[in-house]
Amino acid sequence: QVQLVESGGGLVQAGGSLRVSCVVSGRSFRTVNMVGWFRQAPGKEREFVAAITWSGSSTKYADAVKGRFTINRDNASNTVHLQMNSLKPEDTAVYYCAADWFRGRLVDVATDYSYWGQGTQVTVSS
User: Of 2, 7, 11, 4, which Cα lies nearest the Cα of 82?
Assistant: First the structure.
């Protein structure tokens, strides 16, 4: 099995920064080498934010966060970080990390990820 645990959410003012992290663990964690971040605001569908291969050689971002968010990984600690800068109130959501096996391209569809964390709340005040 693969476990994903997010941390680092919180409350921040608009224009501020926050970093959320996702630790990947479990007996089968080597079966995943692609990690994505998604978010879900109240009353809205879950949407793609960013994804990265475990090697770090490929990244992908949603248009809404390009230039503001950066995804990176720390292989030594099996952790993927999402650095969020210039935050806006519309970034408020529960942020989830997800993982699966990389099949040649980073995917931005939630149903293509098999493993999910429990989520961490990010709130941006105006």
Answer: 7
- Report the alpha-carbon distance of residue 2 to residue 26 in Å, rounded: 5
- 3-class SS of residue 78: coil
Percent of the chain residues topping a pLDDT of 70: 100
Q: Is the pLDDT of residue 29 over 80?
A: no
81-107: average pLDDT = 95
69 in Cβ contact with 122 (< 8 Å): no
Q: Are 106 and 11 in contact (CB under 8 A)?
A: no
In a 13 Å sphere around the CA of 122, the CA atoms on its Cβ side amount to 31
Separation in Å, CA 4 to CA 13, 80, 87: 27, 10, 24
DSSP-derived secondary structure for 25-68: ESTTGGG--EEEEEEE-TTS--EEEEEEETTSS-EEE-TTTTTT
pLDDT of residue 105: 87
Q: Which amino acid is at 86?
A: S
Residues 18/39, Cβ–Cβ less than 8 Å: no
